[in-house]
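lol ok so funny story. i was supposed to be doing the assay writeup but got distracted and ended up predicting the structure for this chain instead. priorities right. anyway since i did it might as well share w the group, maybe its usefull for someone
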Amino acid sequence: MSRRKKLNVITVSLLFLAVPWIFQTGIAMAATGQDHSPLFSLHTTYGSSVSDGGAVPDVYNLSRVYPNPFNPSTAISYDLPRASIVHLAVFDLRGRLIRTLRGGVSEPAGRRTATWNGCDDQNHQVAGGVYFCRLRVGNFIALKSMTLVK
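and the output, tada:
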């Protein structure tokens, strides 16, 4: 169930590992953007997020940002249980859009990876600090924090 609520709170995400399964419990409280619309809404996901020998994942999942902290770039991995239209973007702590990594592109099912090089959409290097990547696929929305170290 999804509730939209305007809060000035950052996400808390817990990750439990029990080989070969990864269960993620995400508590994402909506942060507001510049236009006061929610950047993300409450969403919790349970299920397998590990691709086993090329198997298609069971659920949508923003699985990992590695390395984190990073300099100069980081890889953002996410799982798609079926072909989907993907929106993946990077935001700063104030909710401003910094970089669009996937802007509504169709991608096949499976584990996917995008790389962020620490630059904004104009290809200017951004300052060191905490940023958030947001994955949106249909009604699924997930958020992960990442730290750019200078």
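The chain is about 0% helix and 50% strand. The mean pLDDT is 75.
back to the writeup now i swear
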